[in-house]
């Protein structure tokens, strides 16, 4: 039989063991929970709201139209997703210089998706939905604002202006027959124009002296039996478009940078423009002349007879589209300091042959 002292020692040992086990158990249970995830920056939360509301609605309405519009909207959705990744990374770390390889790697995915959106338009220029596709492809480069040094708002406004030019075409041609097209074309530009505004209004600009703001009256004079009218537009903005309709013997000068210019059913009308975001469009106009002083990316001539276009050195990369037109000449700046314009006629005569069940067309050149 065990001695009472030994029994007391055993009882004490059991109590200590039980107490230690309880302590271990308590320690295990009361381990601190994992740290809470770091909250998103306010700018990323705003971006998420834009995607959840405006972009999602645009994709939904585009899907109702379907075809190429629906396909392009999916590519747009991927562009916004790629930009979100970029924003999350750059808001949690110091932004690398735009010339570094790290920065190039960060924007690579976004650049790929932007190119995909543009390619859908480029590969389907003759589609009945061309204006829809152009509205998006002209505006989506605005997401490249992250590569713009300084304040990118001006750059974004330029992209928005280009998109609105084609968006207005969609609205004009579909507002009575296909309201869904109008709604899909209006969603993203409407949000873009408000979400990038400064949170406080810009300080008012100082007014110019009166002698600098005085406008010259339009010129209107009778020369023999012909009236000649000259008008200068100076108070234009980058999102403005100028529509010139049924003018005759008229010269119009547009100073500053605007969205687009359109000449429709004009005769012997001259237009002098500084810079354009989108394009110059000439329709059913004869014996017209256009001089581009600065940059214009696109010229479209449709159903015209007799036209002269003077291109600046800044616009040598412009695209020119002509259809059902004759006697259209493009004057291109020559080389050297004492350069003169070189007249280049736009081809009119085409030769088409059938080969392998397909049509092949080439320009007819006259020797001599």
TrEMBL record:
One of its GO terms (molecular function) is adenylate cyclase binding. One of its GO terms (cellular component) is cytoplasm. Residues 189-219 are annotated as: Disordered. GO terms for biological process: actin filament organization; cAMP-mediated signaling. Residues 217-348 form the C-CAP/cofactor C-like domain. This is Adenylyl cyclase-associated protein. Gene3D superfamilies: 2.160.20.70, Adenylate cyclase-associated CAP, N-terminal domain (1.25.40.330). The N-terminal domain binds to adenylyl cyclase, thereby enabling adenylyl cyclase to be activated by upstream regulatory signals, such as Ras. The C-terminal domain is required for normal cellular morphology and growth control. Belongs to the CAP family. PANTHER family: ADENYLYL CYCLASE-ASSOCIATED PROTEIN. It comes from the Eukaryota. Residues 208-218 have a biased composition (Basic residues). InterPro entries: Adenylate_cyclase-assoc_CAP (IPR001837), Adenylate_cyclase-assoc_CAP_C (IPR013912), C-CAP_CF_C-like (IPR017901), CAP/MinC_C (IPR016098), CAP_C_sf (IPR036223), CAP_CS_C (IPR028417), CAP_N (IPR053950), CAP_N_sf (IPR036222). It comes from Tuber magnatum. It holds the Pfam family CAP_C.
